[in-house]
Each structure stands twice: as C-alpha cells, then as structure tokens.
Amino acid sequence: MKTKSLKKVLAISGSTRKNSTNLQLVKAFAAMADGHLEVEIFNELDTLPHFNPDLDDKPPAIIKSFRKKVQQADGVLICSPEYVFSLPGSLKNALEWMVSTTFFSGKPVALITAAARGLKAHESLQLIMKTIEASFTDDTVLLIQGIQGKITPDGEFKDAKAQQQLEKLTTAFTALVQEEK
Ligand SMILES: Cc1cc2nc3c(=O)[nH]c(=O)nc-3n(C[C@H](O)[C@H](O)[C@H](O)COP(=O)(O)O)c2cc1C
C-alpha cells in the first residue's frame, strides 16, 4: 500500500536560551503533530550572521541553508518570547534575511508568542509576517502569557489551558498546511 507523505513544517524557536520555554513549546508542538506532520526543529537562530543588505544577493552559506529550509517547508511555525516589548533580535535578524525572498509568500505559518506578557511582540510578529505575505488565521496565532509558570524546562505542562491551546493551534495549523498546494 502506498503511504501518503507527510507535509513538512519548519518549527523555529525564537529563544536562544538553553532552558527556553519556547523551545519546550516547539518540542511539544512536534510531539502533538507526530504522525500528521514532519517537523524539523530549528533552534540555531544564534548561528545566523547579522543581516546586511549588501550581502542579500550573495548571502553566506548558512543563510542560503536557512532560506532553503523555509523555501522547502510546507509550513513554518515560529514560537518566540518578547524582549523589551519587541521580537528578540536574533529572530528579527532571521526574518530580515527573508524579506527579499518570496519564500514566505503564501506560506502557511503558525505564530506563538510565549512570554511574561508578550502583547507587543505578538502584534509585531503578525505585522512582519503579514508584510512578507505569509498565510495565517486567528486559529494559527497564539499568545501565552506568564509562560514561565506554565511549562517546565523539561517540557511538562503545569497549565492545562496552555496545553489545550497548543493542541488547538496544532490541529488548526495542520489543517492549514494540508489544504495548501
Ligand atoms: C532581555 C529580556 C527582555 C525581556 N523583555 C520582556 C518584555 O518586554 N515583555 C515580556 O513579556 N517579557 C520579557 N522578557 C521575559 C521573557 O519573555 C521570558 O523570560 C520568556 O520566558 C523567555 O522565553 P524563553 O523561556 O523561551 O527563553 C524579557 C526577557 C529578557 C531576557
């Protein structure tokens, strides 16, 4: 019997911290999507060089590789904290490298902000992704406030509502990814 190949999702953690709660959420998403999506976790934002418009046409190999991961993914999940009322610099940097490409155009995305408060970063992330024409719905965006009290560094949920919200987003995002192309 021919098995249907799974849609590919690149899941980016916006935090560079070893014990990151956002990384744990990304891992929980991958576990929830298991059997429905093929998830590749990207936890290396801190290895990407600073964006420089002069290098946009001939970027370093590591940027070519990052761009290719986005291009080849059927969907991209971004899960990020808020730093000083905005996106962490390393995530903003990665997105700046994507602006001149069309790789996010029409691409299904899920956008999670998990922080102490996170409202401004959540707003900013949605504005950026709208600007680069990514495709998302109200059901594929999620703000989780007070995240440090809701998931442990080992990935155990301490808050049932946060777990349910992530499950709901995973279901909606899987459907969005599967209906594309
Ligand atoms: C430099 C810095 C600035 C921060 N600024 C904010 C902020 O403006 N708003 C907020 O909600 N949380 C802020 N936080 C808290 C983080 O969002 C919170 O610690 C979050 O859990 C970090 O994500 P992580 O666990 O994935 O590393 C800040 C944390 C750091 C380290």
Automatic annotation (TrEMBL):
Q: Which GO molecular function entries does the Swiss-Prot or TrEMBL record give?
A: FMN binding; oxidoreductase activity
Which ranges carry the NADPH-dependent FMN reductase-like domain? 8-139
Q: Can you list the GO cellular component terms from the UniProt entry?
A: cytosol
Q: Gene3D superfamilies attached here?
A: 3.40.50.360
Q: Which InterPro entries match?
A: Flavoprotein-like_sf, FMN_Rdtase-like_dom, NAD(P)H-dep_reductase
Domain of life the protein comes from: Bacteria
Query: Cross-referenced PANTHER family, in alphabetical order?
Result: CHROMATE REDUCTASE, NAD(P)H-DEPENDENT FMN REDUCTASE LOT6
According to UniProt, the name of this protein is NAD(P)H-dependent oxidoreductase
Q: Source species, please?
A: Chitinophaga agrisoli
The root-end lineage is: Bacteria, Pseudomonadati, Bacteroidota, Chitinophagia, Chitinophagales
